[in-house]
């Protein structure tokens, strides 16, 4: 678990009062919990620190709807309802193991 208040948070938002915490499973897939504590809907850009999470992202999926989200470099644009939250699943892409065959 990496909380939003960690010295090196798992992700940041360009909107005040939008915070991101992360849970990592043993297979390295990550669940991001993005909370909006303000009384207004937030149209936020979330910047994910994949290095901090220790993953090479294969895809980012809205955990509730199951829809894949468009990742622009390390950024996602999301709408988060007032006092609401979003859960995103980052599926990890394993880096091929280097062996004698290349």
Going by helix content, strand content and strand pairing, the class is mainly beta
| Oligomeric organization of the protein chains | single chain
What spatial order of strands do you see in the largest sheet?
2-3-8-5-6
Q: How many DSSP E strands?
A: 8
- The helix count comes to 1
Kindly report the average pLDDT value: 89
**Shape estimate:** globular
The residue ranges in which pLDDT falls below 50 over 5 or more consecutive positions are none
The biggest beta sheet is recorded as: 5 strands, antiparallel
The fraction of residues assigned to DSSP E strands is over 45%
Q: How far apart, in Å, are the first and last alpha carbons?
A: 35 Å
How many whole angstroms does the radius of gyration measure? 14 Å
H and E order: EEEEHEEEE
The amount of helix comes to under 10%
Description:
- This protein has one helix at 50-53; strands spanning 11-13, 18-24, 30-36, 42-48, 57-62, 68-69, 75-80, 85-92.
- It starts with 10 loop residues before the first strand and ends in a 10-residue tail after the last strand.
- It is built from one helix and eight strands, in the order E-E-E-E-H-E-E-E-E.
- The protein is mainly beta and 102 residues long.
- The longest helix has 4 residues, at 50-53.
- It is globular and about 40 Å long.
- The strands form two sheets. A five-stranded antiparallel beta sheet has the order 2-3-8-5-6, with no helix packed on it. The chain has a three-stranded antiparallel beta sheet with strand order 1-4-7, with no helix packed on it.
- The mean pLDDT is 89.
